[in-house]
Design brief:
about 280 residues, three-stranded mixed beta sheet, about 45% helix
Length: about 280
């Protein structure tokens, strides 16, 4: 009885994110053009979002979110003929739902400002945003946390997704200025992984400190990278084995020159990726 009561309490404490419209899709493939327009218009080259502008003109985001809420690879598999189209949907769905959730609470300075329900105690940090916001995909409510950890990660087992999912924070991979596409998804995931690791905030070799600094993403999702390398045939792989695959020649040389350096994880920056917030 206590478990049932707690389950009901958790469900009633969640914040629904209902669509404002229900577009009709008569045939596939599932279209991403509306999100593409959003990202081209409201995301700059630094990956920062113009949330003020998007809040004032949300038509394309609401159109796309309406499509997400009505259709998904689970509810309408006929619109998603292959693995790439399914993965592109879920990555774009995560990014679009994150934008929708931020606008629901905007203005905020961080996703950490979205509080969990006051009647609950000992909830994980930032769960107010990632767990208690409940966007809809193909008619099913799913938190951003569960979308990433219970659906995308286990179904697709591709560590590059961690450089494509954007959590509306400056420590995240940059939100690209185009939506991901089924046709070019493999190249796009490679591109975003390389871009992420090209930035000093995510990877750097410090010879003075005899240390290699990498994003906390490599700590939090360590097993994803290592398991992928094992599946590729590597024995006793390390995080740096994965990272080296996507480095420029110059950065790979620096990494090899610091073979005995300590591996350190860079603190994540949870400030909102808002164009209107100062650095």
């Amino acid at each position: 009885m206590k478990i049932l009561f707690l389950s009901i309490l958790l469900l009633t404490a969640c914040t629904d994110l209902p669509p404002t419209q229900t577009p009709r899709l008569d045939k596939g493939p599932f279209p991403h053009e509306a999100l593409d327009r959003v990202q081209q218009r409201f995301v700059n080259v630094q990956g920062r979002v113009d949330y003020r502008g998007l809040l004032q003109e949300p038509a394309d985001l609401e159109l796309y979110y309406g499509l997400l809420a009505a259709y998904s690879p689970d509810s309408h598999p006929q619109f998603f003929p292959d693995r790439q189209s399914r993965l592109a949907y879920w990555i774009n769905a995560y990014n679009a739902a994150t934008l929708k959730a931020v606008l629901t609470h905007y203005p905020i300075g961080s996703v950490g400002e979205v509080e969990a329900p006051a009647l609950l105690f000992f909830v994980p940090d930032k769960s107010g945003f990632f767990y208690f916001q409940r966007p809809i995909f193909g008619g099913e409510q799913q938190s951003l946390y569960h979308l990433e950890n219970d659906l995308i990660r286990p179904r697709f087992a591709d560590p590059r997704i961690h450089f494509a999912l954007n959590c509306a924070s400056r420590g995240c991979p940059k939100l690209p200025r185009r939506a991901f596409s089924a046709e070019n998804l493999d190249a796009e995931l490679n591109r975003e992984t390389r871009i992420f690791l090209s930035e000093q905030r995510n990877f750097r070799v410090d010879f003075a400190e005899h240390a290699i600094y990498v994003s906390s993403l490599f700590d939090w999702y360590r097993e994803d990278y290592l398991q992928w390398l094992v599946a590729e045939g590597e024995t006793e792989p390390t995080i740096l084995d994965y990272i080296s695959r996507y480095l420029s020649i110059a950065k790979r040389n620096r990494l090899e020159q610091c073979e005995d350096c300590a591996l350190r994880f860079i603190a994540y920056d949870w400030q909102l990726n808002d164009q209107h917030l100062a650095d």
